[in-house]
Amino acid sequence: VDMTALLLVAYATLVVYCGAQRSLAPSSLLDQEQLPIDLTWRQALMVPLFVSAVLLTMYMVFDYIQLVVILCNICVAGFCFFLLLLPWANKVMAAVVTASSSTTQRRAAVLTAIVAVIVTLAWVVTSSWVLLDILGAALCIFMISFIRIDSLRVIVLLFVGLLLYDCFWVFYSDRIFQNNVMVHVATRKAKNPIQSVADQLAVPVGKLPHVELPAKLVVPTLFRADGGQLMLGLGDMAIPGLAVALALRFDDALAQLMPVPTRRHGYFTVALVGYVVGLLMASFCSQVFHVAQPALLYICPCLALPLVWSAMRREQLPDFWHGHTLSSTKTALPP
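Now predict its structure.
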C-alpha cells in the first residue's frame, strides 16, 4: 500500500472517529430539541433498495437533472460544513467575546455561516479536491452523528444488505448495463452551475471547471509519474461509522452503569481498529488487482466479527445484540 493510500485511510479514520464522537451529543449541533434519527431493522433492510434506486437514477438520467443535483449537493454540503464548525465557533466566541449567551451564539452562527458559504463557493469555482474532501467529511460526520443505531442486530442487517449492494454494483453491474455503474457515477462530473447561469444570462465568466459531487474522498497519487487519484466513497465511511458510533455509545452506556465512572470498555477501540484493517485490505487488493474494490466487502467483516467476538467473550452479546443498555440509558454528553 503506497503513501497516498495510507493518507486516504488516515483521513477516513479521522472522519469516522470525529463522527462517532459527535454521535454522543448530536443535539449540540443544532438546538437542544433536535433529536437524531433512529434507524430500525425494517428501515435497515430498505436502505440497499433505496440507495440502489438513487444510484440507478443518477446513472440513467444524470445529464437531465445534473443542475438540480449539483445545487442540492451544494446546499447540503454547505449546511453540513456549517454544522461541523458551529460547536467550535460557539466555544471560541464564548472565550473571546464578553456578551450574553444568546448574543454570543448568534454571532458564532453568523460567522460560521459566512465561512461555510465562502468555502462552498470556493469549491464550486475552483473544483479543488481539498475543499471537496473537507465538504465530504462534513457530510459524513453529519450522517454518523444524526443517524442512530442502538443494536448490533440492526448494524449486521445493514452491513449484509449494503455488502450485497456494493458487490453487485461494483462487480456485476457491467454485465447488465455494459458499464460499471458504481465507478461511472462516482467519477462523473457536473457542469459548473455558475457557468450554466452565466451562459443563460450571456455573462462572460471564462471557463469554469466541472464540479465533482461531494460523494467521495479524493486524494491525488503522490508518487506516480502518470498521475491519477485514489477515491473512497462516503458510504464506505458513513456506514461503518454508524457501527463505530454504536460501539462508542455502548461503551459510554456501560460506563454510566459502573459504580466508578470509567470509559474504558474497549468496544470503540475494537471497532475503530477493525475499520482501519478492513480499509487497508481494500486498498491493498485494489492496488494488487488494479480494479475498483467494494470496500465494504472487507470493512464489514473486519468490523462486525471482532465486535461480536468481544461481546461474546465478555458475556454481553445479548445486551449488545438487542441494545437493551442503550435503550435504557441516556448517553448524550453535555455540549
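The chain is about 70% helix and 5% strand.
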